[in-house]
Amino acid sequence: MRRRTTPPPGSGELAPAIAIRRALEEGWGGLRANPWPLVLFTLLVGGFNLLCQLGIRWSAELLVDPFGQTDGLALALQLLGWLGYGITNLWLLVGLLVGADRNLSGGRPGLGELLATKPAGLLRAGGTLGLVLLVLALITRLAQASAWLLALLQPLLVGLPLLAGVAAVVYVITDQILALPISVLGRLNPLEAFRRGRRAIDPHWPQALGLTLLLGLLVLAGFLLLVVGLVGTLPLASCTLVAAYRQLFGRSTPERKPG
């Protein structure tokens, strides 16, 4: 009897569906196999991210002096804070995805490997995330404009465009739940990652919605545990997301380096 193998990434042949429970079990198993590099990486880069946030808040308080003049040094610090905030967010996302993929492939990535993320990986992740956020912003603006126009014509129906906008936002977020793994692990440009994510998820959208809710609950649980819980829940969510990605796109090369 011929044994069925997982299709290679980018082959276009998809698995029957996203198995949410199996993705969670595989993600938990992958994290348990080598947890400390992912946990320490989250703690370290997350600490840098927190410092950037504190710098933004501190510089904002000093941005305008008592005489109403803009403080140039405070403005420069705020710009550096925002730049660091964006970079550390992308660094955290890319490193966790690469580490989760290595764990699930049977490798044991070290902290140094996760920290050595290449700029190309950050650019692909940033472009993909920016593209998704741009689409979401356009949907939101269109819903608001439609609600404003309908308020002039038929005030009783003003809520319909807003409800349609919320539904469209949920659809896009779910439809692009695998966009970052596709971009980072599959090494595709943002536009191709967006298209590949849509084609992969559309046949399995209800399962993808369940996966999105599960990942959202994991991250929310981390916030509820005084944010410290994110050190554990973010690696688990990343491993679960990568496990779902591998169900549709197959295994990445275990020797693949970050970026």
Helices and strands in order, then pairings?
Layout: H1 20-33, H2 35-62, H3 72-104, H4 111-115, H5 119-153, H6 159-175, H7 179-185, H8 190-201, H9 205-224, H10 230-249
Question: What descriptors fit this protein?
Answer:
single chain; 259 residues; mainly alpha; 10 helices; 74% helix; 0% strand; disordered C terminus
What does this entry show, briefly?
The chain is built from ten helices and no strands.
Please, could you describe this protein's structure?
It contains 10 helices and no strands. Helices cover 74% and strands 0% of the residues. It is mostly helical and 259 residues long. The relative contact order is 0.18. It has one domain (20-132, 162-249).
Amount of helix: over 70%
Q: How many domains?
A: 1
Number of strands: 0
The unreliable regions are 1-15, 253-258
N/C terminus separation: 39 Å
Strand content: under 5%
Output the structural class. Answer: mainly alpha
Q: Encode the helix/strand succession as letters.
A: HHHHHHHHHH
Number of helices: 10
User: How is the biggest beta sheet arranged?
Assistant: none
Mean pLDDT: 85
**Rg, nearest Å:** 21 Å
The gross shape turns out to be globular
